[in-house]
């Protein structure tokens, strides 16, 4: 079976590292970037099955990354991981193409992995 490639765009390195380690342990291929500009640069040159995207990042924020992905017609599934929990933020992210949204402070890494596995029908 082809490995699912996941790009983690998260400026909080402890969170990015925890996600990265757990996903690699579960058999996913991962790459980490720490701001929105890096995320877009990587997405323009490599294909990823999934982008886990923080909204509050340096250089380019998550909402702008979602907008650019749409404009550039980059084909990747996006899960937003954020501590913004306002309904407007969740709806805006989904309107811009995110298929899932979870609040980082309320969602254990194991739950994120479970959501990914369910989405890609691995379980």
What structural keywords apply?
single chain, 123 residues, Rossmann fold, 5 helices
Topology:
Blueprint: E1 5-9, H1 13-25, E2 29-33, H2 36-45, E3 50-53, H3 62-71, E4 77-82, H4 87-95, E5 100-103, H5 109-119
Parallel strand pairs: 1-2, 1-3, 3-4, 4-5
Architecture (CATH level 2) name: 3-Layer(aba) Sandwich
Q: Could you say how many structural domains there are in total?
A: 1
- The helix fraction, in percent, is 40-55%
Structural class designation: alpha/beta
Binned strand content: 15-25%
**Beta strand count:** 5
Rg from alpha-carbon coordinates: 13 Å
Figure out the total of helices. 5
* CATH top-level class: Alpha Beta
The CATH topology turns out to be Rossmann fold
> Uncertain segments of ≥5 residues (pLDDT<50)?
none
| Major sheet characteristics | 5 strands, parallel
CATH superfamily: Response regulator
The gross shape turns out to be globular
Q: Report how far apart the termini are.
A: 14 Å
- Taking all residues together, what is the mean pLDDT? 94
Report the order of strands and helices: EHEHEHEHEH
Q: What topology, given as strand order, has the largest sheet? A: 2-1-3-4-5
How would you portray this structure in words?
The structure is a single chain. With 123 residues, this protein is an alpha/beta fold. It has a single domain, classed as Rossmann fold (3-Layer(aba) Sandwich), CATH 3.40.50. 43% of the residues lie in helices and 20% in strands. It is built from five helices and five strands; from the N terminus they run E-H-E-H-E-H-E-H-E-H. The chain has a five-stranded parallel beta sheet, with helices on both faces. Strand 1 (5-9), helix 1 and strand 2 form a beta-alpha-beta unit. Helix 1 (13-25) crosses helix 5 (109-119). The two termini are 14 Å apart. The mean pLDDT is 94.
């Amino acid at each position: 079976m082809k490995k699912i490639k996941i790009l983690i765009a998260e400026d909080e390195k402890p969170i990015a590292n925890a996600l990265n380690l757990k996903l690699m342990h579960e058999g996913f291929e991962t790459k980490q970037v720490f701001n929105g500009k890096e995320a877009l640069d990587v997405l323009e040159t490599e294909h990823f099955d999934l982008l886990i995207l923080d909204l509050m990042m340096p250089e380019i924020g998550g909402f702008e990354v979602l907008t650019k992905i749409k404009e550039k017609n980059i084909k990747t599934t996006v899960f937003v991981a954020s501590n913004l929990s306002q309904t407007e933020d969740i709806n805006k992210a989904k309107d811009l193409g995110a298929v899932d949204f979870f609040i980082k402070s309320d969602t254990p890494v194991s739950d994120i992995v479970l959501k990914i596995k369910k989405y890609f029908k691995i379980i």
